[in-house]
Design brief:
The protein is an alpha/beta fold. It contains 7 helices and 13 strands. Bound molecules: manganese (II) ion.
Length: 248
């Protein structure tokens, strides 16, 4: 099996090293990741300048672009084959609910999915890399499952792992995305040159976080696996908008 790995935290992140270590047990691994932390990059592609790929001392490739650039460049030309699997992560922090819209971790996996490759995004739910070994163990279990029983058709799975000891994990739940409250207000400050500057504030707390959601699973010690799709059409709004526009 040929596995392509990326992330959004950068090629130097302990999370991507842990994921590559797991993946090596399953086949031939290529790692290509952003040269710096691009968390929050979402699905952006770099279209206004060329991209360069360099090789780190450990063999990982790194690129002066986004997570989506990494997977796109690899699958559409840098690799001489189409990978059998794209893995992204292990992200330093959760990617649940609305986070998935902004996440570069999810975006890297989504790019694999868009290019027809089964893809997994892995996130460790609390920042700081503590219990990275737990997330690596979960990744290994899911890869073992994938080898035994490959997913039928392209599949994009968003995996969030509680930050705890492996023995404290309750198991795996297949979930839907929850929702967050509105983000915290922007943080206003003054630059050394007297300009007003702004820091984007943290994500809002979980709002829709009942049973069945990713938030609820992780909060209660379960690994959350959410299958994602890309169609943003609001099916339930089609009829109402047709009425409003006045078309058939
Ligand atoms: Mn990140």
């Amino acid at each position: 099996m040929r596995i392509l790995i990326s992330n959004d935290d950068g090629y130097f992140s302990p999370g991507i090293e842990a994921l590559a270590e797991v993946a090596r047990g399953f086949g031939e691994v290529t790692v290509i990741a952003p040269e710096r932390d691009r968390s929050g990059a979402s699905n952006s592609l770099t279209l206004d300048r060329p991209l360069s790929v360099r090789v780190a001392a450990n063999g990982f490739l790194y690129l002066n672009g986004t997570p989506t650039d990494c997977v796109h460049v690899a699958v559409t030309g840098l690799l001489d084959h189409k990978p059998d699997l794209v893995l992204s992560g292990i992200n330093d922090g959760a990617n649940m609910g609305d986070d998935t819209i902004y996440s570069g971790t999810v975006a890297a996996a989504m790019e694999g999915f868009l290019l027809g490759v089964p893809s997994f995004a892995f996130s460790l739910a609390r920042r700081g890399h503590e219990h990275l070994a737990t997330a690596a163990m979960v990744a290994r279990e899911l890869l073992e499952r994938f080898v035994r029983d490959p997913l039928r058709g392209p599949m994009l799975l968003n995996v969030n792992v509680p930050a705890c000891e492996p023995a404290q994990l309750k198991g795996i739940q297949v979930t839907r995305l929850g929702r967050r409250h509105l983000a915290e207000p922007v943080v206003r400050a003054t630059s050394p040159r007297g300009e007003t500057i702004y820091w984007i504030g943290p994500a809002g707390a979980a709002r829709e976080a009942g049973p069945g959601t990713d938030f609820h699973a992780v909060e209660n010690g379960w690994v959350s696996v959410t299958p994602l799709d890309i169609d943003l059409t609001a099916g339930s709004a089609l009829a109402g908008v047709r009425d409003w526009i006045g078309t058939a």
